Every structure is written in C-alpha cells, then in structure tokens.
Amino acid sequence: MLRIRSGADGSTMTAENTQENASRDPRVYMAAERTFLAWIRTGLALMAFGFVIARFGLFLREIEATHPGPEAVPSALSLPIGMAFVLIGVVTNILASVHHVRYIRALNEGTLTNGRPSRLAITLALVLAAAGIGIAAYLGTTNDRTPSANDSSRQHTP
Predict the structure, then answer these.
(1) Within a 10 A sphere around the Cβ of 92, how many other Cβ atoms?
(2) Residue 86 is part of which domain span?
(3) pLDDT tens digits, residue range 46-65?
(4) Which distant-in-sequence residues (6+ apart) come within 8 Å of 157 by Cβ?
C-alpha cells in the first residue's frame, strides 16, 4: 500500500482511503460547484458580448442617421458574429452542465480520475482564438470609412 500522509490523529492514510475521503469531503463538492458557476459566468459573458456585437451594427446605423451626407455601407458581419458568440455561450453552458453532472457522479461513485486537462476549457480557448483570428483578418481587410479632412461631401452642421 502507498502511504500518502499522516492524519491529524496520527493515523496513516492509504491511496484507497484518500479517494474515499475525497468523495465525502464537502469541500470537494463546493470546489466543483464553484468551478461550474465560473463556467456559467463565462457562458453568460460570451452571450452578452455576442449581443453587444450583434447590436453594434444597429447602433452605428443610428449614429449615421443623425449625420447628414452620404450613408456609410453598414457591415453585414456584426449580426452573424454576434450570433456566433451567443451560440458559443449557450454551448459552453450546456457542456459545463454535462461536465458538472458527470464529475459529481464520478465523485459519488469513487471513479474520479484526476490530473487530466479540461477538454471544455481547451476547446473553448481554441474556438475563441479562431474567432479572434477571423475578426482580426476581417478588420485588416476592411476599408477605413472615416472621412478625410478634404472630404467635402459630408457637411457638419452645428
């Protein structure tokens, strides 16, 4: 048997006892709950960010309407990008719920395997990195629509 550590009362704990005690320790369940809630906050933040992106095009059109002159061509990508972020947030919340239920079940059954990376975290990081590269590429290829100082087609009225 593998000796892990001495208990507070001087007893020796084995690897089997440690697994059993971890499944009964309420701190383990509370830590799992905190992790789950952190994933829920992440999903909600992604959904809120997606909503802001989707509505940003509408905001720009409203601002443009208050200024006289030729209209700028609105970007058609704010709505799909925003919807994609909302859907990523929804998928994150669903996968976090499934992972939490499986984790608690494994903890209760004593079949928990520790030491492996979170597939959800890695997948989300890769998806968001790809989205960031896509947005950066889009921003790099769009034309700057700010009027120049010599542009007389737009008149500003005080």
Answers:
(1) 24
(2) 27-136
(3) 999 999 988 887 777 777 77
(4) 68
Both tokens assigned to 85: 């972020």
Q: What is the pLDDT of residues 1-48, one digit of tens each?
A: 444 455 555 555 444 555 556 667 889 899 999 999 999 999 999 999
* Cross-strand bridge partners of residue 32: none
Select from 86, 64, 84 the least CA-distant residue to 135. 84
Q: Record the tokens describing residue 79, joined without a space.
A: 């709505």
145/18 Cα distance (integer angstroms): 64
Neighbours of 117 (CB within 10 A): 7
Provide the domain count of the chain: 1
In a domain, 85, yes or no: yes
